[in-house]
Every structure is written in C-alpha cells, then in structure tokens.
Specification:
Length: 242
C-alpha cells in the first residue's frame, strides 16, 4: 500500500484546509484520535478518508478508505502537539430539528472553543434534545471544539439558528441566564416540559435581544466571593437541574 510522505501531497493539502479554515468546513471536517474515529464509525457517520500513521495501520485494517501517512505528514494534520496516530475526514450531517417540543440548549455568542465543546458534551449527557448555536458562537467543527465534545456531535443534533423566532413560534419557553434584578433563582423556577436554556457570551453575557425574548430570566445563587461562574460550569448545573 502506498504511503504518503510529502506534506505538499494534494490530498494532504486539501485536508489541512479543513484543519485551519472554517470556510472549508461547509461539507466535511476533521476528527483526530481513535476514540473519535470509533464514535464516528459506530454512529454511522459518512467517512471520506482515514489518514493513519504507517505503524498503526493494524488498528484500522477493518475499515475502508484508509490512507497510510508518515508521522510528519500526520503531524501536519493535527491540531495538538502530540498527534494520536489517526485523523479522519467526516461528512457534515445535514440536520433538521423539530422545534415544537424538547429541551434545547442555546449558545448565544459563546466564543471559547473549550466552553462550546464542553457544553455540547454536557447537553448530550443531560439528555437534551439538541444544541442550537446563535450569533458568533465558535465553529462546532473546529478542532478544539471537537476535542472538547469527545464525540457528542455524533449523539446530539447541533443546529444553527438566526434568532429566537422559531422557538417562540413553537411556544418553547425561553429560560435566559441573567444577573439582572429581574432574574430569579433557577431553584424557584416552575419548569415547563418544553424549554430552551439560553447561555451567553463569556464576558458580556446574553444580549438584550435574548432578555427581551425571555419567558423567564434565571440565575444561579452564589455564596462565596467569586464574581461569576464559568459559562460551561453554569450550563452544566442548570441543565442537570432543569
């Protein structure tokens, strides 16, 4: 079997674009590591090609579309300092989500990739129906988000929305996190069967548009001296509680 040893190989250059630029990830994206590859295979995701280090080929010999590469070539496709031996190109799933019922996590302008990935993974663990991304939220197909999600993108639908209109039209209650004087403790909330939990930007919180659209403004009471909670930690507390 041929082994690609040149980083300027046409296939490698095309794959590297998926690693570095969001605009190239419209149809497919990269995942790294044997765990994420296993998650992709088990979920039935369409895999276009699998780049594997030549000395690890036995771990993927049961799979199709395998391309052997040198360690240097694989390193050029990795976003980490210590590549895990395999990188695969996966087709983006075309999602359409019914917004008339369910529990939704809405990420409004959440920009840190680690936070976005962690929140999606937590929504998966908490049994939420879908994650909805809004505004300048970090690209869920970026390498750092992929690592934080740990395969949850194969378990829970992720969709982008332009605004809150469709949720409001479907009579989904909007619970918007806010530290304003009008917000109530999440412990006092009478939770509807169908709702959307809106988490905002790490620095500035939710937008005034989200506040205006809210059915309830909610917060987590803090008893120490910390000014605020990390948004992913707050989302985790709220998702499992609600």
């Amino acid at each position: 079997m041929e082994i690609i040893r040149a980083k300027d190989n046409k296939k490698i250059k095309a794959a590297r674009k998926l690693l570095t630029k969001k605009k190239y990830r419209k149809n497919s994206y990269l995942i790294e590591g044997f765990h994420l590859l296993e998650e992709a295979v088990n979920s039935g995701a369409e895999i276009l090609q699998i780049f594997v280090e030549e000395d690890k080929h036995k771990e993927v010999e049961h799979l199709d579309k395998v391309v052997l590469v040198s360690s240097e070539v694989l390193k050029s496709l990795s976003d980490t300092g210590t590549p895990q031996g395999v990188v695969a190109e996966v087709v983006r799933k075309k999602e359409y989500i019914q917004l008339d019922q369910g529990k939704f996590l809405v990420l409004e302008n959440v920009q840190d990739p680690g936070n976005v990935g962690t929140m999606i993974r937590t929504a998966d663990a908490a049994g939420f129906s879908a994650v909805l991304c809004l505004g300048d939220t970090a690209d869920v197909y970026a390498p750092k988000v992929m690592r934080s999600m740990q395969g949850s993108n194969f378990h829970i639908p992720i969709w982008h929305i332009k605004d809150f209109t469709d949720l409001q039209a479907a009579n989904i209650s909007l619970y918007v996190t806010s530290l304003s004087k009008d917000s109530v403790s999440y412990k006092e909330l009478s939770v509807e069967k169908n709702f959307a939990l809106v988490m905002g930007n790490e620095g500035s919180g939710v937008t005034s548009t989200a506040v205006s659209a809210a059915d309830k403004l909610i917060h987590i009471e803090m008893f120490g001296q910390a000014e605020s909670l990390n948004v992913a930690v707050a989302a985790g507390i709220l998702m499992f509680s609600l």
